[in-house]
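Supplementary notes for students who missed Thursday's class. We covered one full example, reproduced here. Read the sequence, then the structure, then the short commentary at the end.
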Amino acid sequence: MLLLVSSALRIEACTCSEFGVPPCEEYRRASAVFVGRVRAIIDGGVPRENRQRADVRFDVEQVFKGNLGASVDVGYMFNSSCSWSNFELGDRWLVYAYPASDGRRLQIPFCTGSGQFNETNDDAVFLQNLRDHKTEEFVMLRIPVASEIDVSVSSNQEMFRAVAAEDSLYRAKVPQAGKYKVKVTIPFAAQITSFDPEFAVKILERTESRTSLEYEVEVEKGLCSWRQVEASKVDLKATASIGGKLLDAERRPVSGVPVFLAKWNIDETEVLRNRDIAFPDKNGGFLFGGLREGKYVVLVNPYDFPEKDVPYLKGYLPGVLRFSDAFVIELEQGKEANVIDFVLPRKLSSRTVELQVVWPNGKPVTHQNPAWNDEREPWISVYKPIGDYLEHPNVTRLARQGVYSFSLYEGFSYVISAEAYNARGERWNGFAKLTVTNPQKSLKLTLAPYSGEAKDWLEKHR
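Structure (token representation):
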């Protein structure tokens, strides 16, 4: 029997935030749900192995939700780290479709329940029962913890105990659609998080041996209320905090540069291994909470290489470059430490780099893929000399065809990558290594058939 397995299991190279979403919840979320047979892949003639995104045209056989005609085109992103099917003509699919970003079309997102249709799997059985008005209402909660927990569901009239099922799933059958309260008791001090920003949880009690929480749900007729939350252990004695202010060289507040906190150790390498991060507010203020007593240091850019929003090298509070000069904070249990201002040095100088991207015949590369009929330029990426990807300012397409510009920091070395598809849909790329100078010479990069990622190229050109 072919099963539609959970999202996290279905996708090998992609991590999904939720797993095991039941059919009743997949149905509730989707804009359209239907069974259809793949009639065509509309990809502009791009070969299958190079296909990036396309529309899948389905002949619609059964519609369970949405207003669909006899056929429908649904977008899908192929050959990415999250894709899990290339679709075969004639395949019969169960599709949970969602609105595309333009609001006019439908798409199949990753980490949803779409898959090849089998009349005996859980999704098919649920949809048929829904059509026949044979479904029941449930409240479901997935909370992956190693300890045994208690979950109950109540209305104004009665209470229902949730039964533990497979994979940390708790399920309670309720008599009818309506509003319910869910109470959860966990046998340790827990921090509760959810991937749904609108999901509100009320903490009723939190001690070292017990956490109780409550939330409200509304169950629709024939469907379920499903939630997934994470419960991580917290140290209730970790109540100290460190706060300060980040300033630029003119002592003006800085809000766009992340600040890091690390336990002090005589070995700087060990200090940099484990860090917390905070983002200063508009006034430059930063705060690290939930800390135990001990010795700490505050720093910026532990990677010691300038990036788009961090035009500095590694530095320590109060604004020094050497680890031996760092201000060490001695924190007492339960206390709040307000430290001296962290004053950054002047920003490193950047230079505009112009890059000309050409095909082997010298013609400029002007589009990611000519078959897509849009204006997107080739993918241009910037890497450290060791191959780690860097964030950098948006690439600007200059008036001259095939010439692009962006800013990099003077005196630093980089590897530049460009990638595009030719008219036959074949993937090409190229690399160039440079050290930014003043003035900076223009750079020329010639594409060739795809040869791997930046780290692969660096291994061959060290």
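Commentary. Confidence is low (pLDDT under 50) at residues 1-13. The radius of gyration is 28 Å. If anything here is unclear, bring it to office hours.
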